[in-house]
Task: inverse folding
């Protein structure tokens, strides 16, 4: 086998060995709902905080030095969302190993 | 035209709605890429799902800036770089190598005789075993090239290397595999 043919053969083998893996059907929906939950939570934090503001406080918000609180609210929402994700992940996590891997690959193909 | 695309075009450019629609398109287009990459890096279905989810959450948080800085270039290398960093953290935290994912891939069946099938499967198992023995950067470059079909330029951006260095990296990875395969 010439060097070029050998390389082509190897590339074909690599193409076979490293085929794309289809994600589980429910993954897209789960990512979507997690993102939605995070953004809704952050929006709710901001909205409940903004509702309690007086006219004077709203005026004061035009000064960037007073932006710490809304930024903190977004951060809290994000962290809370992240925590939800982690909880969800831990709940879903099952023991993995060589056998599980083999079963999953076979299931996916 | 998809509903998401239609909404994206009607939303004010740069608005939250437009940004969300654009992100939705991004993740629908590249979910399989990120998942495939994660699977080949971590070696099991459950952790690959978690890593994919985390990658998209991180991407969402930085999407606006990434889009602004990309100057219209595709965002797939950026996404894969996020997954790459998360996979590195995963291995660092657990101090372990990928769990036999490449060995576990079932070789495809071919419409040939039994002898050829056995021979083909053996060859495929051998190449998977040899891929596992490559250095991390060589193995990652091959995953990006063959599982994701990324160009040298995209791989270079995902790995934070120059185009030239990436070309050399892939060439050496294939050369090493070839030598190891011919030596068996």
Result:
């Amino acid at each position: 086998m010439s060097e070029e043919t050998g390389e082509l053969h190897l590339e074909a083998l690599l193409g076979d060995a490293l085929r794309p893996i289809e994600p589980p059907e429910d993954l897209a929906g789960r990512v979507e709902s997690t993102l939605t939950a995070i953004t809704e939570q952050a929006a709710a934090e901001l909205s409940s905080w903004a509702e309690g503001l007086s006219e004077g406080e709203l005026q004061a918000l035009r000064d960037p030095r007073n932006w710490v609180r809304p930024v903190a609210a977004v951060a809290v929402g994000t962290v809370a969302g992240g925590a939800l994700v982690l909880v969800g992940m831990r709940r879903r996590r099952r023991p993995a190993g060589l056998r599980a891997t083999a079963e999953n690959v076979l299931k996916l193909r | 035209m998809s509903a998401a695309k239609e909404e994206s075009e009607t939303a004010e450019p740069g608005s939250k709605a437009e940004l969300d629609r654009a992100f939705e398109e991004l993740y629908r287009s590249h979910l399989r890429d990120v998942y495939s990459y994660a699977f080949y890096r971590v070696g099991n279905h459950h952790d690959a799902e978690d890593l994919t989810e985390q990658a998209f959450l991180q991407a969402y948080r930085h999407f606006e800036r990434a889009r602004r800085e990309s100057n219209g270039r595709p965002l797939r290398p950026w996404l894969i770089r996020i997954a790459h960093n998360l996979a590195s953290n995963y291995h660092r935290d657990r101090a372990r190598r990928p769990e036999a994912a490449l060995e576990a891939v079932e070789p495809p069946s071919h419409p040939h005789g039994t002898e050829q099938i056995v021979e083909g499967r053996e060859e495929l198992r051998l190449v998977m075993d040899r891929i596992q023995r490559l250095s991390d950067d060589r193995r990652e470059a091959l995953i990006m090239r063959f599982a994701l079909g990324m160009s040298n330029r995209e791989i270079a951006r995902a790995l934070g290397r120059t185009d030239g260095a990436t070309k050399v990296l892939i060439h050496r990875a294939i050369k090493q595999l070839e030598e190891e395969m011919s030596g068996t």
Notes: Chain A has one domain: 25-108.
